[in-house]
Amino acid sequence: MFSNSSKYALTAVIHLASQTDEAHKKMVKDLSLYTDIPKAYLAKLLQQLSKHQVISATKGPKGGYYLTEENRKLPVYRIIEVIDGTHRLESCVLGLEDCNAENPCPLHDLVNPSKAILLNTLKHMSIEELAGKLNKNDGFSIPGT
Amino acid sequence: MFSNSSKYALTAVIHLASQTDEAHKKMVKDLSLYTDIPKAYLAKLLQQLSKHQVISATKGPKGGYYLTEENRKLPVYRIIEVIDGTHRLESCVLGLEDCNAENPCPLHDLVNPSKAILLNTLKHMSIEELAGKLNKNDGFSIPGT
DNA sequence: GAAAAAGTATGATAATTATCATATTTCGGA
DNA sequence: TCCGAAATATGATAATTATCATACTTTTTC
What we know:
Two copies of one chain form a homodimer. Chain A is mostly helical. Chain A has a single domain (4-136), classed as Winged helix-like DNA-binding domain superfamily/Winged helix DNA-binding domain (Arc Repressor Mutant, subunit A), CATH 1.10.10.10. Chain A has eight helices and two strands, in the order αααββααααα. Chain A has helices at residues 4-19, 28-35, 39-51, 69-73, 76-84, 87-90, 108-124, 127-136; strands at 56-58, 64-66. Residues 136-145 of chain A have low confidence and may be disordered. The A-B interface holds A 1-2, 4, 7, 10-11, 14, 76, 93-95, 106-107, 109-111, 113-115, 117-118, 121-122, 125, 130, 133-134, 140, 142, 145 and B 1-2, 4, 7, 10-11, 14, 76, 93-95, 106-107, 109-111, 113-115, 117-118, 121-122, 125, 130, 133-134, 140, 142, 145. Chain B binds a DNA duplex through α3. Chains A, B: One of its GO terms (cellular component) is cytosol. Chains A, B: One of its GO terms (molecular function) is DNA-binding transcription factor activity. Chains A, B: Pfam families: Rrf2 (PF02082). Chains A, B: This is Rrf2 family transcriptional regulator.
């Protein structure tokens, strides 16, 4: 479903969301220890996310990665977009370029309902909402169902 | 979602379903031409499917691949199972080994509803049903929705 | 019963993805 | 103002996946 890179990125951002803000930053090293993601690989992913303003970073001593309020407002989908690009999730399940509702591939109708729900969820739920859900662990429903 | 190999396998089996039976077989070469799947790669996939009795084959002149009635009764899921194994589709979206309803990963509740629907569909719809649906192109609904 | 047409088996190459390593830049504090 | 701690940039290696090639076996047909 997601690439390894996206899985790592999602995991890392979720941790950042629940444990950092402008005043409490996290170094790659600590995030790596905590999440079991290889340090150098994680660093690369965080750099990409930072470059695209999905997460924030400050260099130097006392520096590290963290999420601003703005970062938190971004949809979860944005993380995947930056790391994997849009094609992987959006494209036809059989990899056909010209598959759509009018000209569906054999599996289109079979797979699309689930896919649509998933995409809708990823695009509409913000990082903040996801993290909040985790902290409260309250009842929770998928938008669109 | 699916691996390239699974996509190819699905495409190929769908074609076999709509165009072959015990009396009308298809050679790898022709399937390859028709589906635009590299011949040698397709051959390897069909061999795997054949070895696991998902599709049928006869050697020699006038031979080729085809689907029996038994083959057609198999769930679509079986194709993916043979090619990709079960782990890829069933495992946690973040790749955690011990993720489940009691001990869910951060994305579990977010992704699981769509995933459950998809898996349910793949496991309950037979190859025959999928092919029949294509031929008739009639209204169609996903079981479980 | 030999020849050719098919699948079968096995392994080699290429491309992509995951992982690691190293040098560079920036910033805070002594 | 200079040292060290952090992110940043870039590129090298390893592992996996996709693709290709070749030799072997089976079976039909003449």
